[in-house]
């Protein structure tokens, strides 16, 4: 064996039955709708989905000179502005991200017309799904929320996975979340039952002598009417020598606040959020933490997935991709934004529309110079004006 043979590819032939995944693990998975009955879980999912829904997706085309241009006219561009006839882009992103965070698996179906143009993107609202293999091709079978079953080739859908650790093709189930959910659910039930029980006097009415069953029933009803009805405003129970009444004090078990805080923090940690984020009381630093940890990773995931699915390999090779605009999502106080503009004004990093977007204004567009990079000398000037001045200076020096 030569010295360079160790770098050659192995010529060992593998069996055609070998698969780098275990198909036996692809059992039915149900949508974790029950977890939404826990108010804190619903609040976490809603807060994440609401903020992600503020993103805007746009297709980017690479030019020959290496610069990029926003595509506003292609079929993909039109669908990314209005994904289907029933949803706005806000609705679409909210739905997809909510399913992603709640069930760790979200599916999108790209719909094409007979000419091959993209006409819609549909989130698949399933109750259960299963992946299976048939004739060496992978299929996904969905039990839809309205009881119809839909089966499609797996390579025709977009699959977003969260907690993609143990399973070979699917996001893991939320088993780690259930203990905290059960504790909070039990606490909520205990509070409700405690309120109900606090309005009731419960006790045992015993007779001193043996009496007939029908007389005992009459005596019980009369006792309830005279002493336990709403008319007994004084709350005093009177019994004669024929009866002995023993009150039973019912104290429902309530989880202590420290244990409840621990359960809440487990849910916050699981979803990567904090209480301030849920209640919209966050500072810029607190929002930045959630943005970096949860919102931006989802933005990377969905843009990568859409780019791979909606563009051909050749188109991706030319630099076509789906990009996310986070300007509506990024939270910063006005003072912070002004400081950023001041710190970067001499570097030529941003266009006029970039500055307007930071401050919440609508873009000017190409025709009005919105894509011109602004550079501050003594005053703000356009990058093209600086280049023209440098060229003129060069010509004068040559002369």
The proportion of residues in beta strands is: 15-25%
Structural class: alpha+beta
Overall strand count: 14
CA-to-CA gap between the ends? 68 Å
* Sequence of strands across the biggest β-sheet: 1-6-7-8
What value does the average pLDDT take? Answer: 77
Structural Rg: 33 Å
What sequence of helices (H) and strands (E) makes up the elements? EHEEHHEEEEEEHEHEHHHHEHHEEH
List unreliable stretches of 5+ residues: 3-20, 23-28
Topology readout:
Layout: E1 29-30, H1 39-52, E2 56-62, E3 68-70, H2 75-81, H3 89-103, E4 105-112, E5 118-123, E6 126-134, E7 137-144, E8 149-153, E9 158-161, H4 175-198, E10 203-207, H5 213-228, E11 243-247, H6 257-271, H7 275-278, H8 284-310, H9 313-317, E12 321-325, H10 334-344, H11 352-358, E13 374-376, E14 380-382, H12 383-398
Antiparallel strand pairs: 1-6, 2-3, 2-12, 4-5, 4-9, 6-7, 7-8, 10-11, 13-14
Mind explaining what this structure looks like?
- The chain has 399 residues and is of the alpha+beta class.
- The chain is 40% helix and 18% strand.
- It contains twelve helices and 14 strands.
- It has a four-stranded antiparallel β-sheet, with no helix packed on it. Strands 3-2-12 form a three-stranded antiparallel β-sheet.
- Helix 4 packs antiparallel against helix 6.
- The radius of gyration is 33 Å and the shape is elongated.
- 18% of the residues are buried.
